[in-house]
Amino acid sequence: xxxxxxxxxxxxxxxxxxxxxxxxxxxxxxxxxxxxxxxxxxxxxxxxxxxxxxxxxxxxxxxxxxxxxxxxxxxxxxxxxxxxxxxxxxxxxxxxxxxxxxxxxxxxxxxxxxxxxxxxxxxxxxxxxxxxxxxxxxxxxxxxxxxxxxxxxxxxxxxxxxxxxxxxxxxxxxxxxxxxxxxxxxxxxxxxxxxxxxxxxxxxxxxxxxxxxxxxxxxxxxxxxxxxxxxxxxxxxxxxxxxxxxxxxxxxxxxxxxxxxxxxxxxxxxxxxxxxxxxxxxxxxxxxxxxxxxxxxxxxxxxxxxxxxxxxxxxxxxxxxxxxxxxxxxxxxxxxxxxxxxxxxxxxxxxxxxxxxxxxxxxxxxxxxxxxxxxxxxxxxxxxxxxxxxxxxxxxxxxxxxxxxxxxxx
Length: 410
What we know:
By secondary structure, the protein is α/β, with parallel strands linked by helices. About 50% of the residues lie in helices and about 15% in strands. A seven-stranded parallel sheet has the order 3-2-1-4-5-6-7, sandwiched between helices. Strands 10-9-8-11-12-13 form a six-stranded parallel sheet, sandwiched between helices.
């Protein structure tokens, strides 16, 4: 098939959840289809990765997001959005220039199917009608905002988030049924959106793992009493998670096992993490690294104390694929087919979270067994080689049912 792939970002480098899902989906589609890519970038620096996309796609177009490059434009757009029925993210990614390019691609090539990578791009739906359309929901976007609002303490921001939540929830409700198929990453997300929309055109295709890349490294020494976190702390949901950990959970762990160390790996360590690292030599803030695997290999336990967000957490899947015991929250484990206390540990209370970490640190043999069980769970359910069949089958069904063309191009 000829596929038009619309994306909110250029997925290179595939070094965090959003990029990883988009990159692997694009790569798998490119194996059997011809791809025209239209995406967005926050700044000129991101355009350096254009060549990576051109290796996979027949055509690549990337548009800059003005609000991301200029702060005053972002603030103005946020203010003007107060008077719009659309959520801000639906306005942020729509431009007349991008719409014109989409029309040009459709006019110049025999496009069989349009892949919408995330809900904010749904305004382009009318531009591509009546072509077959698949919308991929990395998260339930309104649920992400709702959970952020629940932990946010600033009154004005909390009110703004609630207003955006209402608009985004309505946008999801009226938009998802207009696609031929909507992909979600977990059955939990499927149930939430199907109930919201009163219409079930959803199919679950989980986030996947490159199990050869993220694999147990038996030759790497594991440091006793060591913990690791992986994830950009510039992300608001990760920002909250690491601050919650350092304020509420770490003191309880440290009181029981003062020899414990923790390493925070990822962009933009928060001021709270940097301050804690200055005061306690057992806390390390490494910032961004190109390869997180050695840091995960060296740790006994991977922690993911997420309180907000939505969707299946790729950081958790990757750590499990490396054979690590993971202690996380209900939000962090959401949508992951793993047995609690055997393949993953789940705790929403700081004391319970800390006690589970302490238990694993004090019982290294149990920790190893849990890690091995976690690896087997990933191999059963989340290897991209398994998921690619579902992706291709879903697209073929949409193409066939829509019947726009009598035959696929040769």
